[in-house]
Amino acid sequence: MLKLLRATVVIFCCILICIFGSIYSFIRFKNPSNVGIMARWFGRLHPLFGLKVEHRFPDNAEKIGRCIYIGNHQNNYDMVTISYMVMPRTVSVGKKSLIWVPFFGLLYWVTGNILIERENRTKAHGTMNEVARRINDDNLSVWMFPEGTRSRGRGLLPFKTGAFHAAIAAGVPIVPVVCSTTHNKIDLNRWDNGKVICEMLAPIDISGYDKDNVRELAAYCHELMAKRIAELDAEIAQQS
């Protein structure tokens, strides 16, 4: 019964956010700060899932400047956990098919996110060059999930190199953002689903990397994020 009630309220709230968010974003058509505003609207829904979410930002988070944020992509609950971490003037990169998702697709497009054809490797590669150009020309940051898909309990999946190629091409740092594990920890029939911690890590200087050692950069970021996720999980387990 609780699960049904929650699902009804969440769906209703999401539809409202998509409708009013689309209207708001049409007024500020593709303003790069639209994405962060909408992400935080969704992020405020976490109490409906019985979650307590702690968001940790470094003291200089708003002074980092242009960068590429990379986050771990777990499941649909990311929408109410790690999404809150999206900073102003930050857009995301997502597959073009998202625009066909009812209500959400229109919002995703009109807020100014970058759409790619993931199945077309040539076009996807060109899009990374376009991402790099937009970062500097439009003075914005980009949010990407380098795993390329939801991990769904399989741990932090291997990283694809697109985000790292774009960072090197644009000459901007990588900023990892991690979220503690939510897989199999949320029961919608349970009032209290515990705590989740989302944390933005320090920027990673990419000046020592180029296209020839981009995989080393991806591996370094993967190791750093996996270690921090494990530490956050241990911290939550200790508090329970």
UniProtKB/TrEMBL annotation:
It holds the Pfam family Acyltransferase. CDD domains: LPLAT_AGPAT-like. Coiled coil: none annotated. Its EC number is 2.3.1.51. Pathway: Lipid metabolism; Phospholipid metabolism; CDP-diacylglycerol biosynthesis; CDP-diacylglycerol from sn-glycerol 3-phosphate: step 2/3. It catalyses: a 1-acyl-sn-glycero-3-phosphate + an acyl-CoA = a 1,2-diacyl-sn-glycero-3-phosphate + CoA. GO terms for molecular function: acyltransferase activity. Keywords: Acyltransferase, Lipid biosynthesis, Lipid metabolism, Membrane, Phospholipid biosynthesis, Phospholipid metabolism, Transferase, Transmembrane, Transmembrane helix. This is 1-acyl-sn-glycerol-3-phosphate acyltransferase. It comes from Pasteurella canis. The gene is plsC.
